[in-house]
Design a protein that fits this description.
Layout lengths: L9 H20 L3 H14 L4 H9 L5 H10 L5
Helix pairs in contact: 1-2, 2-3
Amino acid sequence: EDNTCADITADDLKMAAVFALLRGKVFEATENQENALVWYERAVQLDPYCHEALDRLVGNHLLSLEREVVLLRSLQFHE
């Protein structure tokens, strides 16, 4: 059975965001900031309402100002 993009639900994206957040936390705990950054960004891209990932990116100053602006502009909030 083929999985297509149409098969992906909002719940699937939220679950993927949670796993990305957890991966980011693991990398942050092991002081691997660059990989933590990648996974926190992925979590926010998957679910723009993943506040904990966004807080870790912005609150912990993991992003440069330019990268922060690009990330925030790329988020697609549901209307």
